[in-house]
Amino acid sequence: MKTLLFIALYFVFGIFLIKWFWGWTIPEIFPKAVEENFIAAQISWWTALKFSVFLSILMAVTSIKREKNK
């Protein structure tokens, strides 16, 4: 139960972090790709939500495997 709460918190907080980190790091790491529109300089809230869902699923799978190994 505690694990599910952490996953939910990571999911919600992850949306904000993903959007912020994307806009902060991607244009600096890949300036030429952003300039030529190969990579988006900013992502939408919807895309950040999708990334957060993906990362939450990965966390859930790894935490379930970790609990089974205990």
Structure description:
This protein has one domain (2-68). It is an all-alpha fold and 70 residues long. It has helices spanning 2-29, 31-35, 45-68. The mean pLDDT is 86. The chain has three helices and no strands.
Summary keywords:
81% helix; mainly alpha; single chain
Secondary structure layout:
Layout: H1 2-29, H2 31-35, H3 45-68
Helix pairs in contact: 1-3
Helix content, binned percent = over 70%
Overall structural class, as computed from helix and strand content, comes to mainly alpha
Query: Stretches where pLDDT falls below 50 for ≥5 residues?
Result: none
Mean of the pLDDT scores?
A: 86
Query: What does the largest sheet look like?
Result: none
The gist of it:
The chain has 70 residues and is mainly α.
